[in-house]
Amino acid sequence: MPRSRLPRFGPLTAIAVLVALALTGCGTTRWSDSKRTATEQLLISDAVERAVMHVDMRPLAGQVVFLDMAVLDDVQDGKYLTSALRHQLLASGCRLAPDKDTASVIVEARAGTIGTDRNELLFGMPATSVSFMGNGTSVPELALFKRTDQRGVAKVNLFAYERASGRPVWQSGLTREDSMTRDRWMAGAGPFQDGDIHDRMELAGERVRLPWRRKQALEDERAEAAADAMAERTDLRHEKVFATLPPAGSPAAERPVTADERPVELPPIR
After folding, report:
1. Distance of CA 102 to CAs 53, 76, 123, 238, 246, Å?
2. Are 202 and 192 in contact (CB under 8 A)?
3. Under DSSP, is residue 195 helix (H, G, I), strand (E, B) or coil?
4. What is the widest separation between alpha-carbon atoms in the chain?
5. Can you tell me the distance from the alpha carbon of 105 to that of 77, in angstroms, rounded to the nearest whole number?
6. Which of 64, 54, 30 is nearest to 248 (CA)?
7. Residue 20 phi, psi (nearest 5)
8. Which secondary structure element, helix H or strand E, spans residue 236, and what is its range?
9. First to last CA, the chain
10. Structure confidence by residue, pLDDT tens digits, 82-135
11. Residue 219 CB neighbour total at 10 angstroms
12. Other CB atoms within 10 Å distance of the CB of residue 34
């Protein structure tokens, strides 16, 4: 019985196979997530900026002010609030002092809350676990409609007093602002995202055009009305070039500190 001969490969073939194996490979991409989601940070920063922009600091214009933020040392995102308040003081015409000894007015700030809340609404059957004859299994969520709302909330309050005498000068009153985002799923499709931190509706991160115009027009009108209401104040979200401050020793810079006599409604102390 004749023996079958195996095909012989020459040296060129062996070299070609080695080169092909060396060039064969695959790439990998490393993914990572931050400890806090971008959505949470956007909601909180937007709520903080909205709250600070509603604080009218113009009665302190021209004064040398020290911002006392000692009570915010343990508050999460307190540094962002501190920077926003410094920005608002500068935009309102105040001069920031590096320490209390060089300031004529001390402004103390406190935050009632800086955080997020979330609530969910589901029409359908939620995910559940079922046990049958000692064997457990899980049933996935079956949702006809699902909505998840998340909001960031910031509540701030400020007051000012003379450094030398300790007499009260000004108080801001309570300012609370919210920032919302909404996710919707319909018949398993989604999430459709909209809210204060989105320019328009998005589907899984991609912008989509709204099929209706009436609701969009109402939202545009509300945004325009809010912009008009803030026209006399400083909008921290847009660029601005500030005028030169009056030189030291000028009447504008050396005018005495006067209290703001406008009535401010404060909640009763219980």
Report:
1. 26, 29, 61, 31, 18
2. yes
3. strand
4. 120
5. 25
6. 64
7. -60, -40
8. none
9. 109
10. 999 999 999 999 999 999 999 999 999 999 999 999 999 988 888 888 777 777
11. 13
12. 8
Q: Report the predicted TM-score, pTM, of the whole model to 2 decimal places.
A: 0.68
Place of tokens 């299994």: 137
The single-letter code of the amino acid at 242 is: F
Pairing of strands 189-195, 202-203: antiparallel
The secondary structure of residue 141, as a DSSP letter, is P
In the chain, the amino acid numbered 268 is P
Strands 64-68 and 95-96 come out as parallel
Residue with tokens 């000004």: 170
**E-assigned strands of the chain?**
64-68, 95-96, 105-125, 128-132, 135-139, 142-162, 168-171, 175-186, 189-195, 202-203, 206-207
pLDDT in tens, 8-39: 556 777 677 676 666 666 666 777 888 899 99
Distance CA 145, CA 126 (A): 11
Chain position carrying tokens 């801001």: 172
Q: Which residue has the tokens 């008009």?
A: 228
Q: Give, as one character, the DSSP assignment of residue 252.
A: T
Return the residue matching tokens 């409604």.
265
d(CA 70, CA 173): 19
